[in-house]
Design goal:
Chain B: Pfam families: ATP-synt_DE_N (PF02823). The complex is a heterodimer. Chain A is an alpha/beta fold. Chain A contains five helices and six strands. The longest helix of chain A is centred in the last third of the chain and has 83 residues. Chain B is of the alpha+beta class. In chain B, strands 1, 2, 3, 4, 5, 6, 7 and 8 form an eight-stranded mixed beta sheet that branches. Classes of the chains: A alpha/beta, B alpha+beta.
Chain lengths: 299, 133
């Protein structure tokens, strides 16, 4: 067997095994998207209710003077929560998030703010550490399956720093929003000082007048951190679903490319084999002719 | 008589929704009973409380609710719990075990706030399951 033929066989074998791996990754990611979407769906009622409750308190208290809703006059530092994935193999998923985070950092620096990164996900952590950036908070190990406890943990760290005298004055979140299986967009949002996303006005006019147990201020104290936790939980869930969707797409195109490559190599291999056979035949025919000529010369 | 529309939700899932005649929950100011036509209320619930939903002929729905809020408006009652568990879903053996462990660590260290919280939660789960604590 010719050397070229052996080489091609070997390459086909290796591409085939790569295709098997990427195909398996694709199938795993597809099945996990469904679960991630279900988790997003399951979180919707709580989010709706808590947004409603926050709007109710804010619409009932004439002057809201809660530390979490008041913007400082001279903000000096901004915290940026960057949500990335733990594992790669997800196409441009992490690169997109990190690019937006850099753009946001640029904007904030222009406004004269010092930026403190808080990073979720191993990919974002290594990215920051490789560049020698100081990290103010780091979490990893749950990017593909976040639980509410993780969101609580992150929100707690951010709110604590926000309340400190020389802590952060603004909190922004850079994460990926899940629009559909095919579309995921990077979302940049400010979560503190709080801008409550108003629930759609109820059909029967403005919010009713609420009684509070205990006082409105104390209810707000308890409610706002929960609201922020729920916003962060939502960001984590969407990021997880987007990660699986991005991975599925990346792995699908990798599998397609591998199959195409196998086709190309197979054709080249067939050509090489055919060339070898043709050459052998012409050698045999040439040899036979030479023998026949020699025999004819003797006679 | 009008009915209450009740929803018990936690951040990770919707635990129960349905109609009811009366809802009894424990806020930080004390127990509160909600019947149809109640004025709008927004209350903070205690850690380790038991929620009781009366449904007329059907048996009461009982759930252990850990922290969170109750919001009432226009016969809609929503219970936003940080964590909640229906009485029928409680693993009694595990809850008893958790209660005993928490009580042991309280005896060892009176200042152990985590253990106190844990004990309260376990007790609420057992009460929700209909056990005597």
């Amino acid at each position: 067997m010719g050397a070229q033929l052996r080489l091609l066989r070997r390459r086909i074998r290796s591409v085939k095994s790569t295709a098997k791996i990427t195909r398996a990754q694709e199938l795993i990611a597809s099945s996990r998207i469904v679960k991630a979407q279900q988790r997003m769906q399951a979180a919707v009622p709580y989010e709706r209710e808590i947004t409603h409750a926050v709007s109710a308190v804010l619409s009932n208290t004439a002057s809201v003077d809660h530390p979490l809703t008041v913007a400082k006059e001279q903000p000096a530092t901004a915290g940026v929560l960057i949500v990335t994935s733990d594992r790669g193999f997800a196409g441009g998923y992490n690169a997109n998030v990190l690019r937006e985070a850099e753009a946001l950092k640029g904007h904030l620096t222009e406004r004269g703010l010092a930026v403190r990164p808080y990073v979720v996900g191993r990919k974002g952590l290594t990215w920051h550490k490789f560049r020698g950036r100081e990290l103010f908070g780091e979490w990893d190990g749950f990017s593909d399956n976040p639980s509410y406890a993780h969101a609580k943990d992150i929100a707690g760290a951010l709110i604590d720093s926000f309340k400190e005298e020389d802590g952060i004055d603004e909190i922004h979140v850079v994460s990926t929003g899940f629009v559909s299986m095919l579309t995921q967009n990077v979302i940049v949002r400010r979560i503190l000082p709080l801008e409550v996303e108003e629930a759609p006005e109820p059909a029967d006019g403005p919010m009713p007048y609420y009684e509070f147990e205990p006082a409105a201020g104390e209810v707000l104290d308890a409610l706002l951190p929960r609201y922020i936790e729920s916003r962060i939980y939502n960001a984590l869930l969407q990021a997880a679903a987007s990660e699986h969707a991005a991975r599925r797409r990346a792995m699908k195109s990798a599998t397609d490319n591998a199959n195409e490559l196998i086709g190309v190599f197979t054709r080249q291999m067939n050509q090489a084999r055919q060339a070898e056979i043709t050459q052998e035949i012409s050698e045999i025919v040439g040899g036979a002719n030479a023998l026949a000529d020699a025999a004819a010369g003797k006679e | 008589m009008a009915k209450l529309r009740v929803g018990v939700v936690s951040p990770e899932r919707e635990i129960w929704t349905g109609e009811a005649d009366m809802v009894i929950a424990k806020t930080v100011d004390g127990e509160i009973g909600i019947m149809p036509g109640h004025a709008p209320v927004l209350g903070v619930l205690v850690e380790g409380g038991v929620l009781r939903v009366k449904r007329g002929a059907e048996a009461d729905l009982v759930a252990a609710v850990h922290g969170g809020f109750i919001s009432v408006a226009d016969n809609d009652v929503s219970i936003l719990a940080e964590a909640a568990e229906l009485g029928s879903e409680v693993d009694v053996a595990a809850a008893k075990d958790a209660l005993q462990r928490a009580q042991a660590s309280i005896e060892a260290d009176q200042e152990d706030a985590d253990a106190r919280l844990e004990a309260k939660r376990a007790a609420a789960r057992l009460r929700a399951a209909g056990e005597e604590v």
